[in-house]
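cache lookup: miss for this entity combination. No prior model stored, computing from scratch. Input as submitted by user K.M.:
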Amino acid sequence: MKSTWRMIRDTLTIARRDFTAIVATPTFLLFLFAPVLMFGFGAIGGMGGAMVGKNADAKQRIYAVLGSDEARDFTATDIRLRDLFGEKSTPPELITLAPEADPAKQARTLLDQEDHDVPAVLYGPLEHPTILKRNAESSSASYLAEVAEQTARARAGGFDRPLTHPDFVRIAREGSSIGGTSATGVFAVTILFVLTLMLSGQTVGTMAEERSNKVIEILAASVRLESVFLGKLIGMFGVAMVFIAFWGGLAGLMTAFLPGEAFAKADEMRPVIGIIPFAILFLVYFTMAYLLLGAVFLGVGAQASTPREIQMLSLPITIFQMAMLGLASASVALPDQTVSLIARVFPFSSPFAMLGYAAREAAIWPHVLALGWQLLWVALSIALGARFFRIGVLKSAGAKPRWRRKRDAEIAETSV
Amino acid sequence: MVQELALEAHGLVKKFGGKRVVQGIDLAVPKGAIYGVLGPNGAGKTTTLRMLLGIIEPDEGHRTLLGNDSPREISDEVGYLPEERGLYPGMKCKDAIAFMGALRGLDWKTGRARAVELMTAAGLGHAPDMKIRKLSKGMAQLVQLLGSVVHRPRFIVLDEPFSGLDPVNQERLEALILGERDRGATILFSTHIMAHAERLCDRLCVIADGQRRFEGTVADARALLPMKVFYEPHHEGADIAATLPGDAVREADGWRFTLPEEGIEQLLVRLIEAGHGISGLSIERPGLHDAFVQIVGRKAAEEMA
């Protein structure tokens, strides 16, 4: 009991030192606002891409060469049908023109215009129009054909307005849709992975500070190495939580200013286990993923004696994390396959896979089991990291058990 | 009367890569004593100290620190200044000292308060809020030393505490060690500066090639060598060398030789009768340095110097 209390005390002392040493520096601000750079570059790239796409779309037109009556009805049908398309898949702007002496030649000239891209041109009588198109699978040509069909039908029946007036009634889904739970799983696992990728890899170089400034000798003389490792891990986890709290809080604030439609898709994403338990599990599994991967990276990084060696380690670490993501993603995509079970049982992919599991299954007890299993592996990883450090860096075996100390004392006594 | 021991070690052995760097060392440090561990470079001093503290485990042998056979379990009672000094450069001095105290179970608030007291007493009263990176090497070393005693340990281990310190700071450190001893702590330190060992140590041991070559008081060490005589004749005749003992060597205006076993009186009578007279005479007790050279061998001693 006394040694447990002491281990907690020592661990918290190390964690406190590491946490304050990192958070109370200008470098931490750079770390905290790093996503601004990431989002900034992403936004600039995205805006550039969108502009290119939008400009390309804006430069597209489709033409209908028709008499004035037909052109008026054709335009009315176009306006009605255009509403069926979303903003991103709306057909190019339609322009109607009166036929000239040779409509075929006129249509061909329009198709070859150089100041705009013209994917399709319609001319001739509505009942039997000719549609010129650039591509074999031209959706613009199909659209012109459909507008012609609907216009011709309306004109043949003498209709100048829609015949039906449907009432739209929305019935919200009470449970979770299969697609929704799957999307929730993929989304949550991806977010968990990105957070872990960004934050847990930082533990790899934490022992380097103590090795380079020789403080490790003080720590090794004062507290158990396991406490040093766990304390450092907790200190870094505290830093990660500050990061998450900051950006999570900011994201929460931003959602307050978003219009309701922005959450239309999010409504579909309902974990089977329930939103609040899922959110709690997300935090718990983030903790476990961080501690598990962080403990491994800390242990591996502690063996490195130079910054270059630490830098070299970043590639295998990223590959390892990618492998865990791959396993967890396979688990979400193929929930009934063996790979899903493997991903949930393998300790380092388990937090990711179990989060995906929480999206599609309501049972709680597998999570209790999984958390116990993962905690065991956190402890094992820390113990192994400390042991390898003791052997590889301090050149010493661990403390002898009591029976060996007693035996050594007896041997020493008899030799005296 | 049996002296109570703060530290007891028997047959400590440590191998690195198959090489035995410590070969069965025995130590017995009385409670409340200042105990010196002397030895040339590579003798195994630091490895021995690290084994005594439980930083590394001995491959063979047994040690008991403050009555406990697992030094790690009583590390709160121990203070340690390692040979390779280490502090976090970004920390304030008082925080660095408090941190070292916190590692040994002292709460941060008390640690900070004591840090300021200790720094003031050690002549660093202006520096508690200074960052470690702003300190000179000697000041940083002193701060680390204060960190190793801030929790008022019962047993203090200092590995080469004087190296790198200027004479003023060496004097401060000596005062600090004596102050800790007066408080009741037992102090074990390694050094290669004989003057400090001579002034401070109640007992000492000399280690060479991983083995203990000597254990005892400073007086015991010095007693290993005979006393020396420096004689200056009044009228030095040509036959003076024949009158003096065989080991006499010329030095400046006089002669140096080992004090004869029968004493100095008969020799003086002979010198006066031979007409050499006495201009000056001194009988010198050999220093610890000479004793050390005698124990470890001149070559090893020269390497250390």
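stored under new cache key. The two ends of chain A are 36 Å apart (CA to CA).
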